[in-house]
Amino acid sequence: MGNTFCFNFDYTKNSVKDALHMSNSGTSVFINVLCLSGGRLAETESQKRFMVFLAEKNQNVCGIGTVGFDIVDMPWDKDSFDEDKVFILKVIEGAKQKLGWETLDYRPNEEIVFDCLDTFRKLIEPMTSDDIIDASLTEWLEEADENDPVRCGFPKCMIHDTYVSIHGCQVCTD
Ligand SMILES: [Zn+2]
């Protein structure tokens, strides 16, 4: 059980070289702190899209143990890849600086979550624009109906200052 995050999963070999495995509760905390950090750092539309993508990774809605993803399945945009990659690395760093943690009603286990953030950073670092799968962005946008936050101005949670997904605030609900 738990969730697995990886980079460029090789379906032909059915294996991953490096992966981040997390318990279900650890995953909720991990996504919580990324949402809190990115809610304070995102400026551009593509950056806000990443935060909505992460907010969708809500185990209360999607199911326990079903929210892991491959880095290449994130909504990367070829036109802004370099700055978006820098942004994601800043979001990870911001989470380690505990951005927004004062809004949490619990205290994350720093040792565990920092370790996961470091591993996540190592999954993001090798990503290049050549790895982008165009469908990751286009299909994800196509799935968003008119009420989806990506189509109605990227609303935020008043309590956590996080970008919400169609499921609401990930920090409030997972
Ligand atoms: Zn919230």
Describe this structure as you would to a colleague:
The protein has a two-stranded antiparallel ribbon. The protein is 45% helix and 5% strand. It has one domain. By secondary structure, the chain is mainly alpha-helical. The model has no long low-confidence stretch (mean pLDDT 94). The site of zinc ion has 7 residues, from helix 7.
Topology pattern, helix = H, strand = E = EEHHHHHHH
What is the 3D form? globular
Helicity level, as a percent range? 40-55%
Count of individual helical segments: 7
Strand % is: under 5%
What binds here, in terms of ligands, is:
zinc ion
Low-confidence region ranges? none
Radius of gyration: 15 Å
Count every beta strand, where a strand is a DSSP E run of 2 or more residues. Answer: 2
Question: Span between N and C termini?
Answer: 17 Å
What structural class do the secondary elements suggest? Answer: mainly alpha
> Mean pLDDT, nearest integer?
94
Question: How many individual domains?
Answer: 1
Main β-sheet: number of strands, strand sense, barrel status?
Answer: 2 strands, antiparallel
